[in-house]
Amino acid sequence: LSNRQEEGCQKKKLDSLRPSLTRSQDEEPLCAEERKKLKQSVPSANDLVDCILVEDEEEATLDHPMPMSLEKPYTSITEEADLMEEVEMEDVSVEEPILDIDVSDAKNTLAAVEYVKDLYSFYRKMEMFSCVPVDYMMQQIDLNEKMRAILIDWLIEVHDKFDLMNETLFLTVNLIDRFLSKKGVMRKKLQLVGLVALLLACKYEEVSVPVVQDLVLISDRAYTKYDVLEMEKTMLDTLQFNVSLPTQYPFLKRFLKAAQAEKKCEMLASFLIELALVEYEMLRFPPSLLAATAVYTAQCTLDGFRQWNSTCEFHSHYSQDQLMECSRKMVSLHDKAATGKLTGVYRKYNTFKFGYIAKCEAALFLLSTVSHHHHPS
Asked: Which residue ranges does the record assign to the Cyclin C-terminal domain (predicted)?
């Protein structure tokens, strides 16, 4: 496309988004039917600002336990085999083989199967730099956990309306948390931080990046183009230009492949891990653990019993026991996803596009501390 055609496409895309995200005084008056559609669209940025500016009357009573270790030991397959020697022969089943999940991509140069193990080994070493202190919000004088949740819930809807890539959403939230853990921010600037994080993530991940004026419009002109560009410089300086760090998403893709997950399981795992994005308490878990837990919990939800096979354990480096604490929290988030004020993720996944996967019943049996074996085959 020529530059003129690209500009025309961008303008057409923005014009189609504008009625659902902004209110312009220069536009012609809407008819009654259009006005009704407008009210049903994405919550206006004014609502977000009002929510963030209102003083939080209910003090958060979340416990902030120590962060989990990123490299917990797990029982290897060979150690399990040694333990089985004491079991009588008639009770011993054939050891489950570990599948080569990359064999089908051997001829796909884009899959880079010769490097994939080294890549994910590197991601595991680097993910500690993605993590933030679990109590960083205590250092913020004018912000709290609820304001963060309101912002991310709104950004998830904006991300969906702009039809951006999944990687962009996870990087956006990661940039927000890393920035807030290092820089004090006034509540009236919190939405600006979110929009700038989205802009930076788009520049890193997207082919077509929203222009700054798009972000000004979806904020209901609460900020100017100058405000956005100044905050962009501040954020990059604060993060020392370290934009690219492993998020939950690359781990999620890898573990879904290890689980040989079908589309329904993929959508449910994505739903669960996006619920975790909104919840401040889930920052205590590293990205790889959140991804493995989302896949495990999705499998259990759809199949109705606990399962985590040898292939999943091998590629995730997490045993079923190591996933249980995080899984119980994820199930609780799933169970209450449709209630309360922050239902952006539920509404996103309760659509035809995502197979109405949000309607799935939560796997409440995982909340039990009683251990169950694999479902008999």
From this structure: 246-363
Helix (H/G/I), strand (E/B), else coil: 56: coil
Distances (CA, A) of 96 to 16, 88, 93, 179, 312: 52, 18, 9, 44, 11
Which residue from 305, 321, 307 is spatially nearest to 260, judged by alpha carbons? 307
Structure tokens at 322: 């190591």
DSSP 323-355: HHHHHHHHHHHHHTTTSSS--HHHHHHSSGGGT
Domain assignment of residue 139, given as a range: 43-56+131-238
Kindly report the pTM of this predicted structure: 0.76
Q: Are residues 211 and 265 in the same domain?
A: no
Count of other CB atoms within 10 angstroms of residue 250: 18
Asked if 219 contacts 189 with a C-beta cutoff of 8 angstroms, the reply is no
pLDDT at position 113 is 86
Question: What pLDDT sits at residue 3?
Answer: 53
In a 13 Å sphere around the CA of 356, the CA atoms on its Cβ side amount to 3
Same domain, residue pair 51 and 179: yes
Domain count, the chain: 2
Which residue ranges of the chain lie beneath pLDDT 50? 1, 14-28, 35, 38-39, 55, 57-75, 77-78, 80-81, 83-93, 373-377
226 and 342 within one domain: no
Whole-number Å distance between alpha carbons of 149 and 298: 23
CATH number for 338: 1.10.472.10
